Amino acid sequence: MVGGKVRLAMGLQKSPKHGTPPKPPLPSPSSANKTNSSQKTVFSRSFGVYFPRSSAQVQPRPPDVTELLRLVEELRDRESRLKTELLEHKLLKESVSIVPLLENDIAVKKTELERALKEMENLRNENEKLRTEVEEMKGKVEEERKEKERKVREMESEISELKKMVTSHPVCNGKAEVFGENEDLLSSSQRFNGLVEVSAKSNLVKNLKRSNSKCWEAVVFSASSNEKVESL
Known about the structure:
- By secondary structure, the chain is mainly alpha-helical.
- The protein has one domain.
- The chain contains six helices and no strands.
- Helix 4 (65-167) packs antiparallel against helix 6 and helix 5 runs antiparallel to helix 6.
- It is rod-shaped, with a radius of gyration of 71 Å.
């Protein structure tokens, strides 16, 4: 039964016996070729029903969803990494263009700093020089002050002596009457000269005191100004 089906599918089943029909006319070569090709097609189709092609049996495995998600995540990570690298490259390019400007600014600031240091050193030297001059001036003023005080004391002692001489002059006049009139005139002229000398010396002492006080004030003012310079 199965063999009959196979033969039927293959087109090999014998037709039932009938009376001999009249012979058909001989086909032409073109019609014979068409008949052979149609038989081959039917044969291949009949075999294809029971024996499918190997290419139809071997189908590609559908891709896994988790694998696709993993690939998508990797691609996203790679994209973000590439974007980061691109941004870093742009920043590096901009920083490279800024470097010469920064170097110029640094050179200018360095020059200004060196000039300021030189000026500071010069001011320090001038300050030391002024301090030395002030100390020397203080010493000189102190010596002059002592010398003037000594002179003033000497003049005051001389003035006191002259005053004593003037106050004691009437007694001298009483004694001079014995020696005559010329000596009296001489004593009066000496008294006048003594008075003039006393007044001149007193004025000189006053002037010395004034000049001493003014000089000392000048020294004090100079010292205070130098201390202000040092504090700056």
